[in-house]
């Protein structure tokens, strides 16, 4: 596992924000991936969903189609966050006290943007409510250790990171654009 070395945290935020603005209209997530997640949750009640690293809020809208009564919030580190419904400007590796043990579903396809993978996985794990599920959509081919996709890890390294931080991988399935969706539970 390799992580791009920034001179400081501000350089990380600047690179993430610049990339966000360049790709603001682009959607990585595909509806079939969100439907597969909804199918995986089945009849389990979903009241609160957190989507991390959402760029333009596409994930939140897709989740809202499947979980109409759930509160759905997305995080985006860029200052563009306020332009999108159900999105707040926030670094996904930083814990929000009000989210601890509250989310029935946590989703992200942006783990390769993490500068601190251990802190990030622990933050997301701690956001899970009892019987909550973490869905990480990950594609090792897109994980390249550069200023935007700053984490370079194989799927096997991701699985080791997940399991060594108090989560188990219940299953995985194909997600968007050749990625795997790792289905994680406490």
What value does the average pLDDT take? 96
Q: What is the third-level CATH name, the topology?
A: Rossmann fold
Q: Over all CA atoms, what is the radius of gyration?
A: 15 Å
Domain module count: 1
Q: What is the H level of CATH, i.e. the homologous superfamily?
A: Vaccinia Virus protein VP39
SS content category: alpha/beta
The low-confidence runs, each spanning 5 or more residues with pLDDT under 50, are none
What is the CATH class?
Alpha Beta
What's the overall geometry? globular
Content of β-strand: 25-35%
Run of helices and strands: EHHEHEEEHEEHEE
Number of helices: 5
Descriptive account of the structure:
This protein has 186 residues and is α/β, with parallel strands linked by helices. The chain has a single domain, classed as Vaccinia Virus protein VP39 (Rossmann fold, 3-Layer(aba) Sandwich). Helix content is 29%, strand content 26%. It is built from 5 helices and 9 strands. Helix 3 links the parallel strand 2 (48-52) and strand 3 (71-76). The longest helix has 14 residues, at 9-22.
């Amino acid at each position: 596992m390799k992580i791009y070395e920034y001179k400081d945290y501000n350089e990380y935020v600047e690179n993430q924000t610049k990339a966000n603005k360049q790709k603001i209209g682009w959607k990585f997530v595909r509806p079939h991936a969100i439907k597969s997640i909804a199918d995986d949750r089945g009849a389990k009640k979903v009241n609160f969903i957190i989507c991390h690293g959402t760029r333009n809020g596409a994930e939140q809208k897709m989740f809202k189609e499947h979980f109409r009564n759930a509160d759905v919030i997305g995080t985006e580190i860029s200052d563009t966050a306020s332009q999108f419904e159900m999105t707040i400007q926030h670094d996904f590796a930083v814990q929000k006290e009000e989210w601890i043990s509250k989310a029935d579903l946590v989703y992200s396809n942006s783990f390769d943007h993490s500068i601190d993978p251990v802190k990030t996985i622990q933050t997301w794990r701690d956001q899970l409510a009892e019987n909550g599920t973490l869905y990480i959509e990950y594609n090792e081919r897109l994980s390249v250790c550069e200023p935007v996709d700053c984490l370079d890890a194989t799927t096997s390294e991701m699985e080791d990171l997940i399991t060594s931080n108090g989560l188990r991988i219940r299953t995985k399935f194909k997600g968007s654009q050749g990625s795997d969706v790792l289905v994680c539970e406490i």
